[in-house]
From TrEMBL:
Protein name, as recorded: Winged helix DNA-binding domain-containing protein
InterPro entries the record matches: AlkZ-like
Matches recorded under Pfam families: AlkZ-like
Phylogenetic lineage: Bacteria, Bacillati, Actinomycetota, Actinomycetes, Kitasatosporales
Length: 394
């Protein structure tokens, strides 16, 4: 058996630029192409979805209209819970894979937790909750899309409240609607629909989830891992475990099922998808990008030293590990950006190594490009980071 191929930092950055749709020649035509290439777009912050798409479209002027179309008219993209119990936007065709590979286990815990908390508070039992659930889903089917408040008009029991964590430091009053809709979302029965406000709004209506087949969990995990490695490989076992949220035994089983091929990385053993060991050429030209907070590229790997210098992290991440807006040059993070209250896109270089006139000009072009399609909309990341807050206030 021959030695495993070594894939160095330069090639990993080239793969990133091309497969993450960031290099100039790799721009996508539609939001569906972007989501398909990345497997998933982070959806915790609604603005991230649009900003991540806009950074990768060949014609960013279409970002808001086309992303809204895909999410709320064609429903070719769906916002739902996925890996690590996080909200993502997926291609609709992938929902069955995500649900079976990551959602089912989390859903069982969520429902059990809700019933446990309700019982501790002396709230009604599982049979009562089942009645409310069925009535709520029927009301949602009739309405098409609705807020929790609108659903409570049809099913008043959604307004009932119970005390969570009585006597604890985290004691709080929970409404049945909030907890039940969350459980139904994780179970793949409902998804987030059109927001009440603009594309940056976090107030969503709910909609009945699109129908999908029930898949075998192991087969679904293999398919999800195959897609992710094709988009993001090479990656270490630690990267894969972190991104999926699975147990290490599940990661190893999926790697074996798809015939993933081992390679050597600077941080140790890694994997690529079957047949993906050949060298990847550099993009046609160096590239710059302004990526949003929680962008799937910046958050794609647990081990990030090959594209993000450790000394930059205190300024670019919050205390929970959420990345803020980042400035990229040719496959690595070199700084951060923010939008000021007057709408100006401002940025700062934190790592100037190799960032010369060409890079600065390209970054400024990207800032103007972003400002052009964002227009009068004001963007404040949900999870604010030290550099973003400093730049926004400046």
């Amino acid at each position: 058996m021959g030695a495993q191929r070594y894939i160095g930092v330069a090639e990993r950055r080239a793969r990133l630029g091309l497969r993450q749709r960031l290099a100039g020649s790799a721009g996508a035509a539609t939001p569906e192409e972007v989501a398909g290439s990345l497997v998933a777009l982070h959806g915790t912050d609604p603005a991230t979805v649009y900003l991540a798409v806009g950074a990768r479209l060949a014609d960013p002027a279409k970002t808001v209209a086309e992303t809204g179309r895909a999410l709320y008219e064609d429903r070719s993209l769906v916002r739902m819970h996925g890996m690590r119990h996080t909200v993502f936007v997926f291609p609709t065709a992938l929902t069955a894979v995500v649900h079976a590979s990551t959602g089912l286990a989390v859903a069982a815990k969520e429902r059990a937790g809700l019933l446990k908390h309700m019982a501790a508070a002396g709230a009604p039992d599982a049979a009562w909750l089942k009645e409310v659930e069925e009535s709520t889903l029927a009301a949602l089917a009739r309405r098409g899309q609705a807020t929790a408040a609108e659903l409570a008009q049809d099913e008043p029991r959604l307004r009932e409240q119970f005390v969570y964590g009585a006597g604890k430091s985290y004691e709080g009053l929970h409404t049945v609607s909030t907890r039940l809709l969350r459980v139904l979302g994780v179970e793949g029965k409902v998804v987030r629909g059109r927001p009440l406000g603009s594309w940056t709004s976090g107030q969503f209506r709910w909609a009945v989830a699109p129908e999908h087949p029930e898949l075998d969990a192991a087969e679904a995990q293999a398919e999800l891992l195959r897609r992710w490695l094709a988009a993001c490989g090479p990656a270490t076992e630690a990267d894969l475990k972190w991104w999926t949220g699975w147990r290490v035994t599940e990661v190893r089983r999926a790697l074996a099922a798809i015939g993933a091929q081992p390679v050597e990385l600077d941080e140790g053993p890694g994997y690529v998808a079957e047949g993906d060991v050949a060298p990847v050429p550099e993009p046609d030209a160096p590239w710059a990008a302004l990526l949003p907070a929680l962008d799937p590229t910046a958050m794609g790997w647990q081990q990030r030293d090959w594209y993000l210098a450790p000394e930059l992290r205190p300024l670019l991440f919050d205390r929970s590990g959420n990345v803020g807006p980042t400035v990229w040059w040719n496959g690595r993070v070199v700084g951060g950006w923010a939008q000021r209250t007057d709408g100006e896109i401002t940025w700062r270089i934190l790592d100037g190594q190799g960032v010369g006139r060409e890079a600065l000009a390209a970054i400024e072009t990207e800032a103007e490009r972003l400002s052009g399609w964002v227009g009068t909309t004001r963007i404040t990341p949900r999870f604010r980071t030290p550099l973003e807050k400093e730049l926004a206030a400046g």
